[in-house]
Design brief:
mainly alpha, 9 helices, 85% helix
Length: 249
């Protein structure tokens, strides 16, 4: 088995398993959950931005003569993730307005499945370019899996699914990343320049998730001490991704 394929499959399997940690976090008491979750959010924001700036964009720019198109595809990625959230993951259903809560869970599962599939494609494409880029991309995706999957699990419970069904559906949706990895490997080998398109798109998606989902959550913290700690966790994540780049892991 080619090394890139092996690494990509292992990484997506690990990502799928780690996504289930959200369930164990969810059973904690609300006050403990809120204290823990914000640190995951802060670290996720930093690792996504660090992954995009320190790994994805520098690597694709280095291998691409048309730098302008790199940024064009980055904007495309930003817009793509915006549209995905707007139409597939937008939790617009409220108690007073929604006749069928289960519809919300179905929308969320469709969006989550597509998101996980793209994660798999992105991870595999990165490993095809280099093991170091694949590792950095996997770290960025893993970092936001817990808060993301926690939210998805909560939506399924809110939509009327019991815990057993929520766990099963959440796991099956997570495993879609493996299918995405297989497709990503095929596309990377069959389409010339595929990595030069999908990697900046991933960078744009990382920007969007960090800027629209995680940083706004950090800004909701009004306690000065907690805000400082959250910011330090954010900076720590940036530093971690920078060190990973310097070490070339």
């Amino acid at each position: 088995m080619p090394t890139a394929l092996l690494y990509g499959l292992i990484s997506t399997l690990v990502i799928s398993i780690i996504g289930q940690v959200g369930f164990f976090v969810f059973i904690l008491k609300d006050n403990i959950l809120k204290k823990i979750l914000i640190f995951f959010v802060s670290f996720s924001a930093g690792s996504l931005i660090g992954g995009a700036f320190f790994h994805l964009l520098p690597d694709v720019i280095e291998k691409n003569d048309d730098i302008l198109m790199v940024f064009v595809w980055t904007i495309v990625g930003f817009c793509l993730f915006f549209m995905m959230e707007k139409f597939l993951r937008w939790h617009h259903c409220h108690d007073k307005e929604c006749e069928e809560k289960k519809h919300l869970g179905q929308i969320n599962m469709v969006g989550d499945g597509i998101h996980n599939f793209l994660d798999g494609v992105i991870v595999m494409a990165a490993f095809v370019v280099s093991p170091a880029l694949g590792l950095a991309t996997s770290i960025s995706i893993i970092s936001h899996e817990i808060p993301q999957e926690l939210g998805d699990f909560g939506v399924l419970l809110y939509s009327g699914y019991n815990r057993t069904k929520a766990i099963i559906f959440n796991f099956l949706l997570s495993v879609i990343a493996v299918l995405g990895a297989l497709v990503g490997y095929f596309l990377s080998n069959e389409i010339s320049g595929f990595a030069n398109v999908i990697i900046p798109i991933a960078a744009g998606g990382f920007f969007y998730i960090a800027a629209s989902d995680f940083i706004p959550e950090m800004q909701k913290e009004i306690n000065a001490k907690s805000s400082i700690i959250n910011f330090l966790v954010f900076v720590l994540a940036l530093a971690f991704m920078f060190v990973v780049k310097l070490l070339g892991l």
